[in-house]
């Protein structure tokens, strides 16, 4: 039987923290309990700052606890593209930043004795079509990365080229996050779960869903995407969703990590909790809310892995996560335009390395120190002409979704047509409502309009969520916010 949950969160003893309960005053407020928020909070607390971290759900409950668990500077076949797009120096800075992120994670694991299945192993990117990975290997090595062109790949895949990165890291991300949280608390920090920030002004004063107010000298918004309209990042990024499964192969699993350079993307790594045959497979990516049959995304991963090992594989766990991409392939980290608030977003699904470096940049901004990677990830940059053209194209798509999405979809009947385990758009007294019926037979109804900027929502059958294709907000079947930039729940009919 398949469990619809992150294999990491299902196999970690995550610490629990109370809600905020009362007004607070602190030096630094960190909003978001993922890898960026926890690492930033810990780094600042170790420097002597008084830090409060708030999380709308539970620590690591969303993207950071649903990641693949690869900590690597090997981000697919990216480095030749970065050189062609930005030049050698920018590509070198990105390479060195992420390699430094790998080593910083390793140092934190060692310093605090975090038990998180930490493993050093090679990371591979491979091509199955006529993709020039020999140049990718040469460029990556010239940039100072531990890269080489390889003749072999552990996966039973016919390749046209393989690039190997040595001495990279795999870990159990949820246990790593739990270790960061415990180290932060031990250093004197404070964590409040189930505390959603709904407003944060330039004061800096944060209003929370429980009603408490937090006042701080500095604030870091580490919420995957800054909520609301802060910095305009909702219009400067695109939400990209991937799906993952955990399976047991009929033979020993490959020991290294791998990712395909050609589409559809397939990313693999060992699953230590599944024994020597355990394997994680991630892929079937698409924009949030842009695929109607998400069940098929999971099936395609199991079918692909089964075809490699000539076996019928039943996933033990399946889950999804999303992250945001930027038009120039570099994250936004630093001061939001026109605001004293600090942000970090656009990690391109490589948040364990990029996010760790982002935490160092945010720490140094607050402590008024230089950081060698701060300019590279400048949160206020506009980008080159190609970036601007991409932004225009993306926002034209959003505008079309906003206008056409409300009128194009016809429903199949009334609420008596909602089957157990299904959801979608239905008719209620002449109005279109979003409805779903859980496996206990309970019917949930919502107004299927995103509370961020009013875009139409789509039912995600595979994950049982309401998803917004405009900017990536996601909601539970009964309308609670799972991921922003929305901060308010869905209305009810």
Automatic annotation (TrEMBL):
Residue intervals of the Rieske domain: 410-493
A UniProt-annotated Pfam family: DAO
Keywords for the protein's UniProt record, in alphabetical order: 2Fe-2S, Disulfide bond, Iron, Iron-sulfur, Metal-binding
Record bears the keyword DNA-binding: no
InterPro entries referenced in this protein's UniProt entry, alphabetically: FAD-dep_OxRdtase (IPR006076), FAD/NAD-bd_sf (IPR036188), Rieske_2Fe-2S (IPR017941), Rieske_2Fe-2S_sf (IPR036922), Rieske_Fe-S_prot_C (IPR005805)
Full protein name: FAD-dependent oxidoreductase
């Amino acid at each position: 039987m398949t469990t619809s949950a992150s294999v990491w969160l299902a196999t970690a003893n995550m610490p629990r923290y109370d809600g905020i309960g009362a007004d607070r005053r602190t030096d630094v407020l960190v909003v978001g309990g993922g890898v960026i928020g926890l690492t930033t909070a810990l780094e600042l607390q170790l420097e002597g700052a008084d830090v409060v971290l708030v999380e709308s759900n539970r620590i690591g409950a969303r993207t950071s606890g649903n990641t693949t668990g690869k900590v690597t500077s090997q981000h697919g076949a990216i480095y030749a593209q970065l050189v062609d797009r930005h030049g050698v120096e920018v590509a070198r800075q990105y390479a060195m930043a992420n390699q430094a992120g790998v080593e910083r994670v390793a140092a934190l694991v060692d310093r605090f004795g975090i038990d998180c299945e930490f493993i050093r192993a090679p990371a591979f990117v491979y091509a199955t079509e006529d993709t020039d990975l020999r140049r990718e290997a040469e460029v990556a090595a010239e940039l100072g990365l531990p890269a080489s062109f390889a003749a072999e790949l552990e996966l039973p895949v016919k390749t046209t080229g393989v690039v190997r990165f040595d001495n990279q890291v795999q870990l159990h991300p949820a246990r790593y996050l739990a270790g960061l949280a415990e180290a932060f608390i031990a250093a004197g920090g404070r964590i409040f779960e189930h505390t959603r920030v709904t407003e944060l002004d330039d004061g800096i004063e944060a209003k929370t869903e429980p009603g408490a107010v937090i006042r701080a000298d500095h604030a870091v918004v580490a919420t995957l995407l800054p909520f609301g309209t802060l910095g305009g990042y909702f219009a400067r990024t695109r939400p990209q969703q991937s799906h993952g499964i955990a399976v047991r192969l009929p033979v020993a699993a490959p020991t290294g990590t791998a990712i395909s350079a050609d589409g559809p993307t397939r990313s693999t790594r060992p699953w230590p909790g599944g024994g020597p045959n355990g394997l994680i497979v991630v892929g079937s990516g698409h924009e949030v809310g842009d695929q109607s049959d998400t069940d098929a995304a999971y099936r395609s991963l199991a079918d692909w892995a089964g075809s490699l090992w000539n076996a019928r594989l039943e996933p033990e766990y399946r889950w999804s996560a999303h992250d945001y991409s930027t038009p120039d392939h570099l994250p936004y980290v630093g001061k939001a335009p026109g605001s004293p608030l600090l942000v970090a977003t656009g990690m391109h699904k490589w948040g364990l390395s990029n996010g760790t470096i982002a935490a160092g940049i945010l720490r140094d901004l607050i402590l008024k120190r230089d950081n060698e990677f701060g300019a590279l990830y400048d949160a206020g940059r506009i980008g080159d002409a190609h970036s601007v053209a991409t932004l225009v194209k993306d926002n034209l798509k959003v505008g079309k979704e906003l206008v056409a999405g409300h009128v194009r979809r016809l429903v199949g009947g009334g609420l008596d047509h909602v089957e157990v385990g299904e959801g979608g758009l239905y008719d209620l007294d002449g109005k279109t409502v979003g409805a779903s019926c859980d496996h206990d037979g309970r019917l949930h109804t919502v107004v299927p309009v995103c509370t961020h900027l009013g875009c139409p929502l789509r039912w995600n059958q595979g994950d049982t969520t309401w998803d917004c294709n405009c900017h990536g907000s996601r909601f539970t079947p009964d309308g609670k916010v799972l991921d922003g930039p929305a901060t308010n729940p869905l209305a009810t009919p």
